[in-house]
Specification:
By secondary structure, the protein is an alpha/beta fold. Helices cover 26% and strands 26% of the residues. Strand 8 and strand 9 form a beta hairpin. Bound molecules: nicotinamide-adenine-dinucleotide and the ligand Nc1nc(=O)c(N)c(NC[C@H](O)[C@H](O)[C@H](O)COP(=O)(O)O)[nH]1. Ligand HJL binds next to helix 2.
């Protein structure tokens, strides 16, 4: 499976404010770029923290659907995926509407009753891991379900875990021209943090978009 991570951050590396409210960092041109990455993916993944904070829909806008998906010969929207150990995704979350298939990656910590409620709400529930979701096992299961290209849209906890699991091939970061600050505001990679063997990146592109810049990287070995 090929995994591309995309996020928008402030110049000081924050994905949102310390209140974890959705913050518009991207401009129109950057949201169009995000749509193109979504369109090229078989599935778009977020953490349950993002679902609870933003209630995202994760579908394509009309233009991207028309131009990108049909051109790739794959009409419709990519699947949506939530990393959600205990199944905290609300059954009325926008991500569980019938606009596209939605996989909920839970762990053994999600009760059978909760798994059933989420299946009844329309989710395809995949169990991987004991406490937290085991991302390697879960992405293998997604690959078996036909997901060859996965876009990870955040948030910071999940992006860190994807790097820690060694599953990221490419990173695209939009750096918006603002300072958010706050030691408790989510950053591009939260989690425990690396203290040795850091993921090393090869810078493959720099592009000015709106008032900010898109940095593109291929992900190399940890060292
Ligand atoms: N600017 C952007 O591009 C962007 C993108 C997405 C989210 N956001 C923002 O990020 C914030 C949410 O990010 P977050 O870091 O709180 O949450 P997150 O979306 O990264 O979800 C993290 C949660 O997922 C669950 N989880 C289960 N297994 C896990 C595993 N193996 N690794 C990591 N998490 C696992 C845990 O409950 C954990 O708390 C919101 O404020 C949202 O607006 C910004
Ligand atoms: N690229 C990008 N720039 C931003 O300025 C911003 N705030 C996000 N945030 C990503 C987060 O995951 C959002 O929840 C989804 O972008 C919402 O997706 P929908 O529009 O509901 O499909 N992403």
């Amino acid at each position: 499976m090929y995994v591309v991570v995309n996020a928008a951050q402030s110049v000081d590396g924050k994905l949102s404010t310390r209140r974890r409210e959705q913050l518009r960092i991207s401009g129109e041109e950057d949201f169009d770029r995000v749509d193109r990455i979504r369109a090229a993916a078989d599935a778009v993944l977020v953490g349950v923290g993002t679902v609870l904070a933003d209630d995202p829909h994760l579908t394509l806008d009309e233009e991207a659907r028309r131009v990108e998906r049909l051109r790739n010969g794959r009409p419709g929207d990519p699947a949506r995926v939530v990393v959600d150990s205990t199944g905290r995704t609300p059954t009325d979350a926008r991500i569980l509407d019938d606009a596209a298939t939605t996989y909920l990656l839970v762990s053994a910590a999600a009760t059978p009753e909760r798994r059933e409620e989420l299946s009844d709400a329309g989710a395809e529930v995949i169990v991987a891991g004991e406490e937290r979701v085991d991302l390697r096992e879960a992405t293998d299961a997604l690959e078996d379900a036909g997901v060859g290209r996965l876009m990870v849209e955040g948030g910071g906890e999940v992006i860190y875990s994807c790097f820690a699991a060694g599953i990221v091939d490419e990173l695209q970061v939009y750096v918006g021209s603002l300072v958010v600050g706050g030691r408790d505001a989510p950053t591009l990679a939260d989690g425990e943090g690396f203290i040795e063997a850091f993921p090393r990146l090869d810078l493959t592109g720099i592009e000015r978009l709106d008032d900010g810049v898109v940095l593109s990287y291929d992900v190399g070995e940890r060292s």
